[in-house]
Design brief:
The chain is of the alpha+beta class and 145 residues long. It has a single domain, classed as START domain (Alpha-D-Glucose-1,6-Bisphosphate, Chain A, domain 4), CATH 3.30.530. The protein is globular, with a radius of gyration of 15 Å.
Length: 145
């Protein structure tokens, strides 16, 4: 199992950063490798909402659906995969002076017995590490003057 955690400090108030980052229609603008995002439930935000999207990792595309849990306005949520690549993601928004610290955690694994942990450590971990770092920097750039 891999666990990637990165934080970025964004010079904007937490409500602005949360509002932008929580808007699933904007995810493909700043989250590397994510496209075709759509809500698959009647509600588009909050607990039990599901989002389907395409993820591109290691040159391969995969269809994924994630369900939101522990949603708290301006604080964050946890997303748990319901379809596609097994994963869990946590988004945490914290006020930091006049800015915001955004922490993003991705946990997951390659679902193949015996070789899964080897694939995780050799390929998946470095790829997700790069994706998360790049995505957070792209999000930060959105709020620069």
């Amino acid at each position: 199992m891999i666990r990637i955690e990165h934080s970025v400090v964004i010079q904007a108030p937490v409500d602005q950063v949360f509002r932008y980052a929580a808007d699933y229609q904007k995810w493909s603008e700043w989250y590397e490798g994510v496209s075709n995002v759509k809500a698959t439930t009647a509600a588009a935000e909050g607990n039990d909402v599901r989002y389907a999207y395409t993820v591109r990792v290691m040159g391969l595309s995969a269809e994924v659906e994630t369900e939101i849990h522990d949603f708290s306005e301006n604080q964050g949520w946890t997303g748990i995969a319901t379809k596609g690549l097994p994963h869990r993601t946590t988004w945490i928004f914290e006020p930091l002076g006049t800015g915001t610290r955004f922490t993003h955690v991705v946990e997951g694994h390659v679902p193949f017995p015996l070789i899964g942990s080897l694939l995780d450590s050799l390929f998946l971990r470095p790829q997700w590490d790069k994706i998360v770092k790049t995505s957070l920097e792209t999000l930060k750039q959105h709020f620069l003057p």
